[in-house]
Structure to design on (196 residues):
């Protein structure tokens, strides 16, 4: 399924996604995965089956191609660079040349998404992943993401309307409560359809 979580700034959307990713423990209640409390699941399992991507990402020159994951291949990375319209400013073995200057903020965000997509997990948790993209690139990136992940579970936090066109359910977080907003889902679907 594809789920979006919306809400005003500061209501706890990012905290919620951090809890779902296992980075934080809830102060009340229990988060379950497949009926099993998240706290009872080995960290290695979570790391293998859940991919988390946020607004920003750290890349390190010395890691080279491994910035994109242990199993990432040059062919796969080049394919996604082309799809996401990111210029190839890498040196040999995908090392970054003065990373902060070689790529724009929007390109850095797309590189982070490429890394997430190459992981091939079962569950994808996204936190404001298109915040640095213009509307045209955002639409292109979202289409590719949801087409690629059509058989996966995706939960995303967003304050932008574009991602809402690609999800099956929308929840609003307000006063520590999640409320389904099927009215917003209907509005978005009338103007666009999801490739999933």
């Amino acid at each position: 399924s594809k789920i979006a979580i919306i809400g005003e700034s500061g209501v706890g959307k990012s905290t919620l996604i951090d809890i779902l990713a296992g980075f934080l423990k809830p102060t009340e209640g229990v988060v379950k995965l497949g009926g099993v409390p998240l706290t009872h699941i080995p960290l290695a399992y979570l790391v293998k089956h859940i991919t988390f991507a946020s607004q920003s990402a750290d890349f390190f020159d010395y890691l080279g191609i491994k910035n994109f994951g242990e199993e990432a291949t040059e062919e796969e990375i080049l394919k996604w660079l082309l799809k996401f319209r990111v210029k190839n400013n890498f040196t040999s073995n995908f090392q970054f040349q003065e990373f902060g200057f070689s790529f724009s903020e929007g390109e850095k965000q797309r590189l982070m998404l490429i890394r997430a997509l190459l992981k091939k997990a079962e569950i994808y948790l996204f936190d404001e992943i298109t915040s640095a993209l213009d509307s045209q690139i955002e639409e292109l990136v979202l289409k590719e993401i949801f087409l690629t992940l059509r058989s996966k579970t995706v939960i995303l936090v967003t304050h932008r309307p574009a991602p809402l066109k690609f999800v099956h359910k929308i929840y609003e977080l307000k006063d520590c409560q999640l409320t389904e907003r099927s009215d917003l889902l209907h509005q978005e679907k009338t103007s666009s359809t999801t490739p999933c």
